[in-house]
Design brief:
- The protein has helices spanning about 1-35, 50, 65-115, 120-125.
- It is an all-alpha fold.
- The radius of gyration is 37 Å and the shape is elongated.
- It starts with a helix and ends with a helix.
- The mean pLDDT is about 80.
Length: about 130
C-alpha cells in the first residue's frame, strides 16, 4: 500500500512537471514565432476578419462600423492629433532656441560696438 502510494505520487509529480513545462514552452514558442515573422502577438488584434465588416449590403450601401472598429479609428485619430501637436511644439522650440541664440549674438555685438574707442594720438597710432 505504501509503495503504491509513493509510486503514484512520484508519477503524478513527474506528469505535472512535464505537462507544465510543455505548455509553457509551447506558448513562448508561438509568441516568438509570431514576433519573428512580423505578426502581432495577439492574432485577433488585427486582420481581415477583425477589420472587415461582418456583412455587406447588396445595393452597395456602406456598412456601419463595428464598435471595435470605431474605437480603433478614434484611437488612431487621437494618435495623429497628438503627433501633430508635439511636432508643432518641437518646431516652436527650435525657432525659439534659434531666436535666443541670435539675440545673444546681437547683444554681444552691440556691447562690442559700444565700447570706448581710442581718441587722439592713440587713434592715429592704432592704424
Amino acid at each position: 500500500m505504501y509503495l503504491t502510494n509513493l509510486m503514484t505520487k512520484n508519477l503524478f509529480s513527474i506528469c505535472q512537471q512535464s505537462s507544465r513545462a510543455i505548455s509553457c514552452t509551447q506558448i513562448l514558442n508561438v509568441k516568438e514565432w509570431r514576433v519573428s515573422r512580423g505578426l502581432p502577438v495577439n492574432k485577433n488584434a488585427e486582420g481581415i476578419l477583425t477589420d472587415g465588416p461582418d456583412y455587406t449590403f447588396l445595393d452597395g450601401r456602406p456598412t456601419p462600423l463595428l464598435h471595435k472598429q470605431k474605437l480603433r479609428m478614434l484611437k488612431q485619430r487621437d494618435f495623429a492629433s497628438r503627433i501633430v501637436e508635439l511636432s508643432s511644439e518641437l518646431d516652436f522650440a527650435k525657432t525659439r532656441h534659434q531666436k535666443m541664440l541670435e539675440a545673444k549674438e546681437e547683444e554681444r555685438n552691440t556691447i562690442l560696438n559700444n565700447r570706448l574707442k581710442p581718441k587722439g594720438k592713440a587713434l592715429l597710432n592704432k592704424k
